[in-house]
Amino acid sequence: MTVLVEKHPGYRQIILNRPERLNALTAAMGGALLAALSEAETDPECRAILLTGAGRAFCAGQDLTEVMPTKDGPPNLKPLLDGYNAVIRKLRSLEMPVVAAVNGVAAGAGANLALACDIVLAGKSTSFIQAFARIGLIPDVGGTWFLPRLVGPARARALAMLAEPLSAERAAEWGLIWQAVDDEKLMEAAQALTARLAQGPTIGLALAKRALDAAETNTLDQQLDLERDLQDEAGRTGDYAEGVRAFLEKRPAKFIGR
Ligand code: T3D
Question: Quick check: pTM over 0.85?
Fold first, then answer.
């Protein structure tokens, strides 16, 4: 199985599982990942996702043996990328937080898969590589959208054109990811963070995610209106009522995700 799913209390851990190829992506693996995310979405017990890789890598991007030009001509990359793009769209629209635990190198589409997640933790010894320019391609699966927004246009251009490894610590300094963590503590930290998010006000977190994404294209006026509408929605949840009650009663809130 190229994608494994572990059920934990409150969340699912999804593991890219082709360790002998550094979890390089194939079309079938993209489909399996999409299916795993879609299935998690239908489980009312699942209120967060943790995405990581098996073995020593997070993901080395597209499996290049699958897309070799042949004597008959170049491969048709569009259907392949439509498949991966569906995964990125699903990650962004999932109504629950998604954490990436980048346990080893994240290259090409693998790097941008991680960047599509809501919160990215990475082991300190690992690196992010926009490897595309090394093989004559452009950053894809959202790379050209995420990079300038996360690190600014100057750094985005250098990352895209130089294809040099960016250490996890530098990635955190630059705001590309949330945190670089000691390697041996990465999974424990990522699981604790995901479990914590799984106990959060799931609808409120999903609405915050929606508002932040919309802010990328909205004017301030549009965003103020959107915040008003989404806040009204959040304010109608049981979790909001519980949050306020817990505050007034000076106790931790017990959110149920509704
Ligand atoms: O047409 C399209 O491609 C459309 C989609 C594009 C999206 C993309 O993601 S393009 C970018 C694709 N990815 C890359 O170019 C990265 C290729 N890999 C590397 O540069 C290096 O493997 C790493 C820097 C990621 C790690 O280096 P290292 O030295 O730690 O490991 P290694 O020895 O290179 O790799 C270990 C094995 O995994 C090795 O196989 P072997 O020799 O033991 O049989 C290597 O060939 C294999 N592997 C690593 N990455 C890929 C791969 N096999 C197929 N595809 C890969 N992407």
Answer: yes
Q: Is the CB of 111 under 6 A from ligand 1?
A: no
> What are the beta bridge partners of residue 49?
12, 98
Q: What atom in ligand 1 is closest to the CA of residue 63?
A: 55
Q: How far apart are CA 102 and CA 180, in angstroms?
A: 9
Judge contact between 99 and 197, C-beta under 8 A: yes
The string of pLDDT tens digits covering residues 179-218 is: 999 999 999 999 999 999 999 999 999 999 999 999 999 9
Residue 20 CA, ligand 1 centroid: distance in Å: 10
CA 24–ligand 1 middle distance (angstroms) = 7
Q: List the domain boundaries for the chain.
A: 3-198, 202-248
Q: What is the DSSP string of 93-112?
A: H-SS-EEEEE-SEEETHHHH
How confident is the prediction for the chain on average, in pLDDT? 97
* pLDDT tens by residue, 156-187: 999 999 999 999 999 999 999 999 999 999 99
d(CA 54, CA 225): 43
- Residue nearest atom 39 in ligand 1 by C-alpha distance: 21
CATH topology classification for 3-198: 2-enoyl-CoA Hydratase; Chain A, domain 1 (3.90.226)
| Ligand 1 midpoint to CA 61 (Å) | 7
Overall fold of domain 202-248? Lyase 2-enoyl-coa Hydratase; Chain  A, domain 2 (1.10.12)
Say yes or no: do domains 3-198 and 202-248 share a fold.
Answer: no
Q: Is 108 in the pocket of ligand 1 (CB under 6 A)?
A: yes
Instruction: Give the residue from 48, 61, 47, 46 showing the smallest Cα distance to 16.
Output: 61
27 lines ligand 1 (CB under 6 A): no
